[in-house]
Amino acid sequence: MNVKVLENYEELSQLAASLIEQQVQTHPQTVLGLATGGTPLGAYKYVIRGYHQGYMDYSNVSSINLDEYVGLDKNHSQSYHQFMKEHLFDHINIQDDYTYIPDGKTSSLYQECKRYEGIIDEIGPPDLQLLGIGENGHIGFNEPGTPFTSLTHIVNLEVSTRQANARFFNSFDEVPKQAITMGIGSILKSKQIVLLASGERKAEAIKRLLEGPVDEQFPASALHHHKNVTLLVDKASYQLLEGK
Predict the structure, then answer these.
(1) What is the pLDDT of residues 73-90, one digit of tens each?
(2) Is 136 an active-site residue?
């Protein structure tokens, strides 16, 4: 695992955006694997900035998102469809028909998982997959105990994960209890993975990722099975390894 320690969140975000831009410039028909949540927001801000400065073109790029809440229509204010539109898609020239996110309101969750995994294989896998890491080590919505071989599936969200996302809802009770997520096996199909971690709350997870065993009880440890992973971490997340 290639580890890059950045001074702060802004530097981390700039580098993450730069890696995305380099990938797209080298391969204009790149397939990007994209993540939601607070950590990638800075990277998306710099991606948007680069587009508006005129040196980036996303018209031939496809994107595959990691996950979506079960039960939320794509027009719901807290759906990941809306998150991506608000924070990235509406601000660059990526084509709507080239963006893929699971359907959380599908009439058949099983068929949706099968359909989505088919999309990953048909247009992908991602050339570059962006990931965040949860405090319990989850990647995507793959909670502890998820098999490393898992493909797109339905997951029951742990209370800690729902609590972490409650800030985006009016109350904890409104946070969905299930999600459709790319499985760990789905994620590992990606050609390159860029994992972002920022802030003191992620320090314990990063310490366990880099020093702990490879164990299904810590989903992010599966990344040690991938040959091309870059961890971008700021000093606040890296502090436990520095003995601070």
Answers:
(1) 999 999 999 999 999 999
(2) yes
143, 153, 165, 234: the catalytic one is: 143
Specify the pTM.
0.94
SS3 12: helix
Task: Indicate the helix (H) or strand (E) that contains 67.
Answer: strand 67-69
Q: 67 catalytic, yes or no?
A: yes
* pLDDT tens per residue across span 144-153: 999 999 999 9
CA 8 vs CA 133, 183, 205, 223: distances in Å: 17, 30, 17, 23
Catalytic residue among 81, 87, 138, 153: 138
Integer Cα distance of 23 and 114 in angstroms:
28
CA pair distance 74, 105, nearest whole angstrom: 8
